[in-house]
Structures are given as structure tokens and as C-alpha cells.
């Protein structure tokens, strides 16, 4: 039989050992966890969408940049060539395809620099050759309108070899060498080419060699006052003169990088009256290869977009960008490439004319039979259509078309940018929701802690009463016995 005392003890929870801290934590977790899980799930999905949007844009960039890089190579644009390399040789410069070819060039004269030769050393010590003394002091070397550079000769470098080394180390573009032959020893100076790059070598100070009488003054030379000089001018500085498509042009060197865009022209010899043709050879890689590579790369991009937007049977296997209108717009604009005009006239104006068609999933198919027939009919027209030497709004070429599509898709206020902005804003909002939930749960925990602290106080009072009642019940029970 249950005693009155045991019933009261059970009702008051005496000895129950209630862990109010654990109880509060459990209640807070029960309230927080479902709400937090909803927010974090949305965060995960939103982060995946931001990543997928960025990946789609990056993949588009990769595709367009790769296509530009591919078509800028000589394999698809041809190699620049000269029909007489002994007069003029050409090569492509990095950064683009040479434009303005074919062209006619005539080399009227080559660029030249001043060449000076000192008189032969006839002193008694001439047998010493390059080691023969030259005297000590300082010469002043100047090129064109540049600053004069001191050439100092001391006892440490008092020789033809020492003088040549000092001039070479001056860093002004003048090359010095020592010639020793059956006639004796001479110093030769060669200045940079170009009419504006004449050289002068004047004496700033000179002390004749005590033993040989050698004096630096013997090497002095100036185009303004060569009279009496022991130095002979073997050549006169001059600019190269060419006729390019009938227009006379002058250059300080025989290597010209600016006459024709992206083309280096090397002048090898003067040939007045002889016209040399500069042109581009046929591409070594066919347009057929280009179309195959383009379709494969396009399909790789489209398949990735299809995966990202797949509907799936439920949310667990649907694409992360399922239902995203920006990606649908991106796919739509890409699909229009096959029907966009690459030329305003001619037998072939679009990619579809070359055998390219769109499949139901947005990928492309290439009918190589149609393409081969088109190439056989007019290979130059196909090259001009896909990779024109000079691009224009009406003949952008394949790379130009891809750039145009990319610009439209990635425009500042376009759907892709708007979607990216939308998801980034949502990410900030979800972060704020988590922060708000943390604040709410902190307040809730504090509220529960106060409630259960008050309960503990009351429970202590109840236990004191319980102890008193227990004693009374014990007395009553004893009295009854």
C-alpha cells in the first residue's frame, strides 16, 4: 500500500535530481535546430548556385579565350612569307595575326651606323699587338643627342684591349674591337644604325705614355671636324629606306616591327628597283579541324549547362540551377550561333551552311560531308568566313562571333549578372537570419534559465515543507501504532 508520505514525496519531486541546465539546453536545441537546419540548407543550396553561376561564366570565358588563342596561331591564319628572303625576310610577332598582307616592298637602302677605324700602330712596340699602350686620360663618347659618357684609361687598362673593353662597357650601343693583322694593330668602332645615331669620340684629358709616347688623342673623331684626324670613317650612319606599297618609309634599323601590324620585317640587302612580295601562306591546319574542335568545345560547355539545369525526378537529383532563367537565356544565346550570319553575302554565311545543326539537348552536330563539300567548293571563302584576315561587324569570324555572344551574356545588367547579384544578396540575408536566430535563442535560453532558477528556489522551499511534513507523518503513524 502506498503511504501518504511517499505520495507527497513523489508529487514534490524530492530526490528526483532534475538537471535544469540540461533541460534548458534541450529545450533551446529543440526550438533552434529545425529552424537552423532550414536556414543552413538554404545556405548550402545558395552557395552551390553562386558557385555554379560563376563556373558557367568562367567556362564561357575559357571557351571564348581558347577559341581566340587557337585562331591567332599561324596554324589557322597561315604563315607570313617573302618571295625573296635574300632581300627581305618576315616573321609573325606574338599578339595577333599580321594584317595588310599581301604587300609589295622595295628596299632602296639599308640602315647603317658609323664605322671608325684608327690608323695602324707603327710604333716600335707594334709587335705587342692588342697589348700595345694607348696613353692614359679620359675620352668622351657620345651617340646622337645622348649624354656624353667618359671613357677613362689608367695604367691598369692602358692598351688597345683595355680601351676597347672600356668603350664596350659604356653601354651606349657602340661596339669596339681590336684588329691585329699583318699591317699592325687598329681600333675599330661601330655605332648603332640610324641617321640620328652618329658617334663622336673627343679628348677630355690625355697624358702620353712615358715609354712609347702613345696618346689618346690619336683616337679622337668628330663628324663635325674630322680634318687631321688619324681615324678613318669607313661608313656613314643612315636610315633604312623602303617603299611599302608605294609609300616611302624610313627606319633607324634593318629590323622593322611597326610597318605592318604583328609582322617583323628583316631587311637583308638593298635592291633598288626590285619589288618583293610579302604574303601569307595557306593555313597548315584546315578549317575542317577548326570546326571539329569548335563543336567539341561547344558541346562540353553545353553539357555542363544541361547538367546544372537538369530537372531530375525530385529535388535530390535536380540540377543546382534548375529553373534558373539566366542559364536558360545563356543557352538560348549560345544556340543562336549556328544561325547568326558571319558574312552578309556569298554561298556560305552561317555555321549551319557548313553542316552544323543543333540537337534537342542544345548540343551541336557536325555533318562532315556537308563541310567537306563546302571546303572543296571554295576553301578560301570558308577561311575568310571563319577566320577573316580583317574582322568587321559584318564578318566577325568564329572568334568574333563567340566574343559577341559572351559580351551579351556577361553584360553588366544582363540576366547572368542579375542572377549572381540575387544569390549574393540572398547569402547575406541568410547570414543575417542565422545571426537573428542566435540572438533569439540566446534570449530564449536566458528566459528559460530564469524560469527554472525560480522553480529551483520554489522546489527548495517545497523540500523544506516536505521535510516538515515527513516528520509529522512519521509521528502520526507512530501514534496510530
Structure description:
This protein has 481 residues and is of the alpha+beta class. It folds into 3 domains: 274 residues, no CATH class; 75 residues, no CATH class; 121 residues, no CATH class. The strands form 5 sheets. The chain has a 5-stranded antiparallel beta sheet with strand order 1-15-3-11-12, with no helix packed on it. A 4-stranded antiparallel beta sheet has the order 7-8-4-10, covered by helices on one side. β13 and β14 form a beta hairpin. The longest helix is centred in the C-terminal third of the chain and has 66 residues. The radius of gyration is 45 Å and the shape is elongated.
Features of the shown structure:
single chain, 481 residues, alpha+beta, five-stranded antiparallel beta sheet
Short description:
The chain is of the alpha+beta class and 481 residues long. Helix content is 43%, strand content 18%.
Number of helices: 10
With strands numbered from the N-terminus, the spatial order across the biggest sheet is 1-15-3-11-12
User: What is the count of structural domains?
Assistant: 3
The count of β-strands is 17
Structural category: alpha+beta
SSE inventory with pairings:
Elements: H1 4-12, H2 20-72, H3 74-77, E1 80-82, E2 88-92, E3 103-109, E4 115-118, E5 136-143, E6 149-153, H4 160-168, E7 175-181, E8 184-190, E9 199-207, E10 231-235, E11 240-244, E12 247-251, E13 255-256, E14 263-267, E15 276-280, H5 287-308, H6 325-335, E16 356-358, E17 364-366, H7 368-377, H8 379-386, H9 397-409, H10 415-480
Antiparallel strand pairs: 1-15, 2-14, 3-11, 3-15, 4-8, 4-10, 5-6, 5-9, 7-8, 11-12, 13-14, 16-17
Amino acid at each position: 500500500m502506498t503511504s501518504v508520505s511517499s505520495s507527497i514525496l513523489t508529487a514534490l519531486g524530492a530526490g528526483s535530481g532534475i538537471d535544469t541546465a540540461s533541460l534548458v539546453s534541450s529545450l533551446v536545441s529543440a526550438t533552434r535546430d529545425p529552424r537552423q537546419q532550414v536556414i543552413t540548407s538554404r545556405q548550402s543550396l545558395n552557395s552551390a548556385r553562386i558557385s555554379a553561376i560563376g563556373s558557367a561564366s568562367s567556362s564561357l570565358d575559357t571557351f571564348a579565350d581558347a577559341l581566340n588563342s587557337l585562331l591567332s596561331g599561324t596554324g589557322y591564319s597561315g604563315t607570313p612569307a617573302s618571295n625573296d628572303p635574300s632581300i627581305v625576310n618576315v616573321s609573325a610577332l606574338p599578339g595577333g595575326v599580321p594584317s595588310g598582307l599581301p604587300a609589295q616592298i622595295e628596299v632602296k637602302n639599308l640602315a647603317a651606323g658609323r664605322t671608325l677605324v684608327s690608323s695602324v700602330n707603327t710604333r716600335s712596340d707594334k709587335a705587342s699587338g692588342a697589348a700595345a699602350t694607348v696613353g692614359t686620360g679620359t675620352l668622351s663618347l657620345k651617340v646622337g643627342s645622348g649624354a656624353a659618357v667618359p671613357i677613362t684609361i689608367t695604367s691598369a687598362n692602358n692598351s688597345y684591349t683595355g680601351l676597347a673593353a672600356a668603350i664596350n662597357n659604356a653601354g651606349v650601343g657602340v661596339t669596339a674591337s681590336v684588329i691585329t693583322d699583318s699591317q699592325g694593330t687598329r681600333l675599330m668602332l661601330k655605332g648603332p644604325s640610324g641617321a640620328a645615331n652618329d658617334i663622336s669620340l673627343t679628348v677630355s684629358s690625355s697624358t702620353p705614355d712615358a715609354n712609347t709616347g702613345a696618346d689618346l688623342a690619336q683616337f679622337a673623331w668628330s663628324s663635325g671636324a674630322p680634318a687631321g684626324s688619324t681615324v678613318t670613317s669607313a661608313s656613314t650612319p643612315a636610315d633604312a629606306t623602303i617603299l611599302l606599297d608605294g609609300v616611302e618609309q624610313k627606319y633607324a634599323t634593318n629590323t622593322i616591327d611597326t610597318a605592318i601590324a604583328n609582322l617583323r620585317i628583316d631587311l637583308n640587302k638593298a635592291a633598288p628597283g626590285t619589288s618583293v612580295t610579302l604574303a601569307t601562306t595557306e593555313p597548315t591546319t584546315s578549317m575542317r579541324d577548326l570546326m571539329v574542335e569548335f563543336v567539341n568545345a561547344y558541346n562540353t560547355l553545353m553539357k555542363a549547362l544541361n547538367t546544372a539545369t537538369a530537372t531530375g525526378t525530385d529535388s535530390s537529383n535536380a540540377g543546382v540551377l534548375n529553373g534558373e532563367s539566366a542559364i536558360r537565356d545563356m543557352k538560348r544565346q549560345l544556340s543562336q550561333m549556328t544561325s547568326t550570319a558571319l558574312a552578309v553575302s556569298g554561298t556560305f554565311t552561317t555555321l549551319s551552311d557548313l553542316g552544323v545543326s543543333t540537337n534537342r539537348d542544345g548540343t551541336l552536330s557536325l555533318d562532315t560531308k556537308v563541310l567537306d563539300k563546302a571546303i572543296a567548293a571554295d576553301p578560301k571563302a570558308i577561311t575568310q568566313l571563319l577566320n577573316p584576315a580583317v574582322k568587321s561587324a559584318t564578318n566577325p569570324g568564329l572568334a568574333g562571333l563567340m566574343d559577341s555572344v559572351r559580351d551579351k551574356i556577361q553584360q553588366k545588367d544582363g540576366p547572368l549578372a542579375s542572377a549572381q547579384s540575387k544569390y549574393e544578396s540572398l547569402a547575406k540575408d541568410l547570414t543575417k537570419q542565422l545571426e537573428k536566430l542566435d540572438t533569439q535563442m540566446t534570449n530564449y535560453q536566458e528566459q528559460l534559465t530564469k524560469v527554472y532558477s525560480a522553480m529551483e528556489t520554489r522546489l527548495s522551499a517545497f523540500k523544506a515543507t516536505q521535510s516538515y511534513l515527513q516528520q509529522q507523518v512519521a509521528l502520526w503513524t507512530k501514534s496510530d501504532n
